[in-house]
Design goal:
Layout (H helix, E strand, L loop, with lengths): L24 H7 L7 H16 L3 H17 L4 H11 L1 H11 L2 H12 L6 E6 L6 H5 L5 H4 L3 E6 L3 H9 L5 E5 L1 H8 L8 E6 L2 E2 L1 E6 L15 E4 L5 H12 L9 E4 L5 H7 L4 E5 L2 H7 L3 E6 L10 E6 H6 L1 H19 L4 H8 L9 H9 L1 E3 L5 E3 L4 E2 L6 H13 L9 H8 L2 H10 L12 E3 L2 E3 L4 H5 L8
Parallel strand pairs: 1-2, 1-3, 7-8, 7-9
Antiparallel strand pairs: 3-11, 4-11, 5-14, 6-9, 6-10, 12-13, 15-16
Helix pairs in contact: 3-6, 4-5, 16-17, 18-19
């Protein structure tokens, strides 16, 4: 196994960022398997791998990670500037200059003392290729994993059922999941019960309802009886938001329309083939339908619920308990990457970084339209919605309670539900809030709040009454 994230930051010939135009052997072979490995990069990677194999403790990995993080920060994560400078002054001089203004040795000692020894350093983290996965993906090429001494392989996964099954089987140490999934998995809804925790939300907003171009004259949901809709997974915000929207417009999602589970990468093809009349999907597949001229954006889901959660970072309770230091380092990596992704100024760079085959495999302009919120809607309009997608990691307990009310409403769970108890067991708002404060992030002073969905206020203090308040449902 080659190590591509823990390169020597003082080597001007070695890239530390792996994105679309990266020439290192791993990236070359991942995007074009028939290409031969570049000899220079292969030698560098083998040297790095040999060093870690000989001195492969977590302490050595953390030392290299700290060096890399400091050097990256000095050059503002601009790898071109870093490499040019290293070639100009030489590795030794560069190290001495940086060391004269930043106490590397003390930083390494402090990091070792604060984090403790990592139980595992090589991890496998799954992701589904959508823009919601941006923090998990960007933590790789920007070095946030290595900053905390981790060597993480981010593994592209076809869909959510596969992500769930690989997580339950232990093939993934942690995974990009939909926010309802850890709740469902912990309760045994749709799978064998296994306690899961969700310490961080990946993104808020970031979804849309798309209709086939043939339905431009059917903008009123009351005209949708008999339609076939796609959602990426049963235990998803997409499913629950679509059901909510349909029901509020007098359409019973179980009798008046068909809702089918379709993996996100297959959404556009099914729309084009006429297998679907529309879908509520994660991006970039909403924008890709417009790009392919087979669909138009009926509405963004932020118009249903401004600031709703979508995807999340989750792992089994067992993994966190058995590997507390590794779990803490992994969570900090994700929080760092989430904060980076939330900065609007970084969105164009992110679009370029996550576009390649090994990540989203999408045209850069499609991803840019999603991340910047300046997009074509397929109806001849150019829209400006800067918060079309945002990245806010705080896992509100009240969001978990709302999801549970919809699982109960539509018959995915039955009987008495301990709404607050389950939400607080799975959504680790208090623990995550403490870590966010330590990292200098803003944190709410509470973990519950009211939410407004299509003009109706949800009070998390009365979930059962809310569940039974709807005219359409299975309760």
């Amino acid at each position: 196994m080659t190590i591509k994230s823990l390169g020597n930051p003082f080597d001007g010939d070695q890239s530390l960022i792996h994105k679309k135009d990266c020439g290192c052997s791993d990236c070359v072979t991942s995007t074009n398997p028939t290409k031969e490995r570049a000899p220079a990069f292969a030698q560098q990677e083998q040297a790095s791998a040999d060093t870690i194999a000989q001195n492969g403790s977590s302490e050595d990995l953390l030392d290299r990670a700290i060096e890399s993080a400091v050097v990256r920060s000095v050059f503002g994560h601009n790898d071109h500037s870093r490499r040019s400078f290293m070639k100009m002054v030489g590795a030794g001089s560069a190290a001495a200059m940086i060391g004269s203004v930043f106490p590397l040795a003390q930083a390494k000692a402090a990091a070792h003392e604060a984090m403790g020894q990592l139980e595992k350093t090589r991890l496998n983290v799954g992701f589904v290729p959508i823009t919601c996965a941006t923090p998990i993906i960007m933590a790789d090429p920007l070095g946030f994993y290595e900053k905390y001494g981790l060597d993480v392989t981010v593994t592209k996964t076809a869909g959510w059922a596969v992500a769930r099954d690989k997580s339950l089987a232990g093939e993934y140490d942690a995974s990009h999941m939909l926010t309802p999934m850890p709740l469902a998995m912990s309760m045994g809804a749709g799978s064998t019960p296994e306690p899961y925790i969700m310490p961080a939300v990946e993104n808020i907003n970031g979804q849309a309802i798309v209709l086939h171009v043939d339905h431009k004259d059917k903008r009123d949901p009351k005209q949708w009886k008999g339609f076939k809709f796609g959602v990426p997974f049963e235990y998803s915000m997409h499913n629950f938001l679509l059901r909510y929207y349909l029901a509020e417009n007098g359409i019973d999602p179980d009798t008046d329309v068909q809702i089918r589970v379709v993996p996100p990468p297959e959404m556009v093809a099914n729309l084009r083939a006429g297998n679907l009349d529309g879908y509520l999907s994660p991006d970039p597949f909403n924008q890709r339908a417009v790009w392919e001229k087979v669909g138009f954006i009926h509405m963004l889901t932020k118009e249903i619920w401004e600031g709703h959660p979508c995807c999340a970072f989750a792992c089994s309770q067992r993994f966190a308990t058995e590997n507390p230091n590794t779990y803490g380092a992994l969570l900090r990596s994700i929080l760092d990457a989430t904060q980076y992704s939330n900065d609007y100024n970084n969105r164009f760079e992110i679009a370029e970084a996550i576009a390649p085959t090994n990540y989203l495999n999408q045209p850069v302009p499609v991803i840019q339209q999603v991340l910047t919120g300046r997009y074509a809607d397929g109806l001849g309009n150019i829209m400006d919605e800067p918060n079309r997608i945002d990245f806010d990691p705080f896992p509100w307990h009240s969001m978990g309670v709302w999801i549970l009310t919809q699982m109960k409403r539509w018959g995915y769970i039955e009987g008495d539900v301990d709404y607050r108890g389950i939400a607080e067991q799975v959504y680790l708002a208090s623990d995550t809030g403490r870590i966010m404060r330590e990292m200098g992030m803003e944190v709410p002073n509470e973990t519950y709040k009211s939410h407004v969905i299509m003009g109706k206020t949800f009070d998390p203090a009365t979930p059962e009454e809310y569940t039974r308040s709807f005219a359409i449902g299975r309760v």
